[in-house]
Specification:
By secondary structure, the chain is mainly alpha-helical. It has 4 helices and no strands. The termini are far apart.
Length: 97
């Protein structure tokens, strides 16, 4: 087993000691648990689409969110769609005048 040295400021030490006393464990065990918990977390945050796909698998909904274009996260695609909609709206207003 390897030993790792850690430099902590006074406030961090107080917080660690307080938390370890609340959980009735040693600061060393608490730090080990923090590391284990962190290593078990996914390496990158999930995207909105991944979260929606998980929700669909769990509940079978919301399917309508996933029926749109898959490239809407690209800025240039969104910009072109918004520009097109604005142009169409402008054209409708001009036609009414």
């Amino acid at each position: 087993m390897q030993t790792i040295q850690l430099s902590l400021d006074e406030e961090m030490i107080r917080n660690l000691n307080q938390l370890s006393s609340q959980q009735q464990t040693t600061p060393e065990e608490l730090i080990k648990q923090f590391i284990i918990d962190r290593l078990q977390q996914p390496t990158k945050p999930k995207t909105v689409m991944e979260k929606l796909q998980e929700a669909e698998r769990r509940r079978g909904e919301p399917r309508h969110f996933l029926q749109g274009r898959s490239d809407l996260s690209d800025r240039d695609v969104r910009k072109a769609i918004i520009a097109q909609r604005m142009q169409e709206k402008y054209q409708r207003i001009q036609d009414q005048l």
